[in-house]
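Researcher: Let's do a round of design. I'm pasting the structure tokens now; please hold your answer until I've finished.
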């Protein structure tokens, strides 16, 4: 009997408090999303990712469940005690529609969410119908809150519809169709040839002269001037926006023309520093992120601004009406909850307008419409809030470090336990992946190498040849292709593993002597080496197809077997020195066979050849240039959609290199190398 009474009491408590808890929880989730969603493009923390993912999913679930609960809890009797308070609870339903519309800072957690816009459209119809049912049924008994409810209903409908439209606009099919140029059939070939044929048939002397409309202009070393000392921040935002309007084509795998290449090169090659170049690319990618994951595409136009001002006015009017409404007969706690919801709605709308006004989108819109002074004022106000538009970090995963530490007793025990759950690989990647800030000198090396390549191009075919280089150009330039070319002519994933291990073996060479300039080159080499292995293991979809993970697994087993001969007490330096002493005169595959895909001793062979370069600076100069070229090759071979996926996860250095290379004219996106030909028919009678 006691249990029955407790159950009844619990049911009463839940019926009373559940709607209050649900609507307040829905508001709380909106606050989390609007203040923290923007951080994910600048942060690689998996904790933040889980929090945002949970809040994103729960926000819709809680609001939907709360709407259903309100619809179910309406009392059918107009004379009951509960019916008087139902009108107040019905006033909550449009707030839940407002919450389902979500904040401006996040519409899609991942790109796949944009493709589900039809589901959101169906949800919009159903939830609007549910909310309408709730307040129509309640207000049929009492019309005291009719006016504020209608205003909030209009606000919620606008916000929910705006979110659905943003998802639709960011879907890949819609983006692609919106960027397609009108079909171009070119000059009328059939008509031209008919005139030519009729002239010949009449016995007239005919000659066709073809004049190109415009020829691609080669960039010369003189064009790439000295650094001009830095670009003002305002100009960076302006240039980034202008480039975004063109180079967003790459996200949906559309093509560019030689005119785009010339215009872009004229900016990036004339007096730009590496810092300026990468910063412009960073801001440009931030615009792309906004289009794909926020309401920016629908907010920053005339209709979007009108909606934003309408929602703030409607929600404010609803709050004022509620303040002056007679609240006799309403539950005191429910009145407090209603005040929290109303004030929260107004405050969130004010924050949305502030964020909209202080965004680079508004800054560029004002400049486009010649409001220069107002644009400068907006820029000054927004400047203190601007930080990096991405994490500015690069991950790293080191094979030798993993093989040594994974054999340690406590990690081995942990590995055996978690292997029971089938998550050993995920644990290894999480535990052994390290993040470092992208060194400025790495950006300088990448930018300098790209400028050297561009200024040595003589024709359009050279662009394609350079985009296909993955280390051979660097080796040829340094004069070591005959000795080391085999290591970069292998499959790409094999080359990454070969050079990754060889880089570590050369680093642990006991003859190494520290020097400032040499340290910089070594740090570049090791950072890119670890980063490329991280891409191979954790983001293989960003590299060319291969059997990289199989090769990695076999190579790890080989390394552990070799290190196991001396036991866990052996230092890494000693183990690497032992590897360097292995005789590799005989090809390893002839001894080990082709079943195992381990490249350990091929990497030893490569390291031994590299160590024959006596001058340490020259040796590491070769290694660093090969790694930078591999990085650039990987960037061009990754599809735009795959690059776009990483923007919401803190961004990738590979994506910034990819877009920078596109601006420099290197890549497979350029498919139009000349304009329409002007063919003229000369007839001599």
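Researcher: That's everything. Go ahead.
Model: Designed sequence:
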């Amino acid at each position: 009997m006691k249990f029955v009474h407790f159950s009844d009491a619990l049911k009463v408590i839940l019926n009373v408090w559940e709607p209050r808890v649900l609507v307040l929880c829905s508001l709380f989730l909106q606050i989390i999303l609007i203040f923290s969603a923007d951080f994910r493009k600048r942060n690689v923390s998996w904790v933040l990712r889980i929090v945002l993912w949970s809040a994103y999913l729960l926000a819709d679930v809680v609001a939907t469940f709360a709407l259903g609960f309100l619809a179910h809890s309406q009392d059918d009797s107009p004379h009951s005690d509960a019916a008087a308070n139902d009108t107040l609870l019905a006033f909550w339903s449009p707030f839940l529609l407002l919450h389902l519309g979500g904040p401006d800072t996040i519409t899609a957690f991942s790109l796949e969410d944009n493709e589900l816009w039809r589901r959101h459209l169906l949800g919009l119809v159903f939830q609007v119908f549910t909310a309408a049912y709730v307040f129509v049924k309640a207000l049929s008994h009492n019309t005291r809150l009719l006016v504020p409810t209608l205003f909030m209903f209009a606000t919620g409908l606008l916000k929910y519809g705006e979110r659905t439209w943003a998802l639709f606009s960011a879907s890949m099919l819609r983006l692609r169709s919106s960027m397609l140029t009108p079909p171009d059939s070119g000059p009328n070939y059939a008509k031209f040839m008919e005139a030519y044929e009729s002239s010949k048939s009449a016995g007239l002397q005919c000659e066709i002269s073809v004049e190109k409309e415009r020829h691609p202009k080669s960039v010369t070393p003189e064009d790439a001037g000295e650094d001009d000392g830095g670009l003002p921040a305002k100009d960076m935002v302006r240039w980034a926006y202008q480039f975004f309007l063109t180079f967003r084509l790459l996200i949906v795998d559309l093509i560019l023309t030689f005119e785009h290449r010339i215009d872009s090169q004229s900016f990036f090659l004339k007096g730009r520093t590496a810092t300026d170049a990468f910063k412009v690319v960073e801001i440009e990618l931030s615009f792309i992120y906004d289009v794909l994951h926020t309401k920016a595409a629908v907010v920053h136009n005339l209709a979007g601004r009108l909606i934003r001002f309408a929602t703030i006015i409607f929600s404010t009017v609803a709050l004022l009406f509620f303040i002056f409404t007679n609240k006799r007969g309403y539950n005191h706690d429910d009145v407090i909850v209603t005040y929290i919801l109303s004030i929260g709605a107004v405050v969130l709308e004010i924050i949305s307008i502030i964020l909209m006004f202080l965004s680079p989108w508004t800054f560029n819109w004002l400049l486009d419409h010649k409001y220069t002074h107002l644009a400068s004022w907006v820029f000054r106000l927004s400047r203190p809030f601007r930080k990096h538009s991405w994490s500015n970090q690069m991950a790293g995963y080191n094979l030798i470090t993993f093989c040594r530490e994974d054999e340690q007793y406590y990690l081995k025990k942990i590995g055996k336990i978690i292997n029971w759950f089938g998550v050993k690989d995920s644990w290894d990647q999480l535990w052994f992946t390290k993040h470092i800030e992208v060194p400025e000198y790495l950006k300088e090396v990448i930018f300098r190498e790209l400028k050297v390549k561009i200024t040595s191009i003589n024709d359009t075919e050279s662009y394609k040849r350079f985009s296909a280089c993955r280390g051979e150009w660097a080796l040829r330039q340094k004069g070591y292709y005959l000795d080391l070319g085999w290591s970069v002519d292998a499959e790409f994933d094999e080359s990454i593993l070969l050079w990754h291990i060889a880089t570590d073996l050369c680093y642990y060479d006991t003859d190494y002597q520290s020097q400032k300039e040499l340290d910089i080159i070594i740090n570049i080499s090791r950072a890119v080496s670890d980063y490329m292995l991280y891409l191979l293991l954790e983001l293989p979809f960003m590299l060319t197809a291969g059997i990289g993970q199989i090769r990695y697994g076999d190579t790890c087993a080989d390394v552990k077997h070799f290190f196991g001969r001396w036991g866990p007490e052996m230092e890494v330096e000693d183990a690497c020195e032992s590897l360097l002493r292995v005789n590799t005169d005989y090809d390893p595959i002839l001894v080990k066979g082709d079943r195992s895909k381990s490249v350990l001793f091929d990497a030893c062979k490569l390291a031994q050849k590299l160590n024959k370069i006596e001058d340490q600076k020259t040796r590491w100069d070769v290694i660093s240039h090969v790694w930078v070229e591999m990085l650039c090759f990987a960037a061009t071979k990754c599809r735009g959609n795959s690059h776009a996926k990483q923007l919401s996860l803190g961004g990738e250095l590979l994506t910034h290199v990819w877009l920078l290379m596109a601006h420099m004219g290197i890549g497979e996106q350029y498919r139009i190398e000349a304009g329409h030909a002007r063919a003229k028919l000369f007839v001599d009678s």
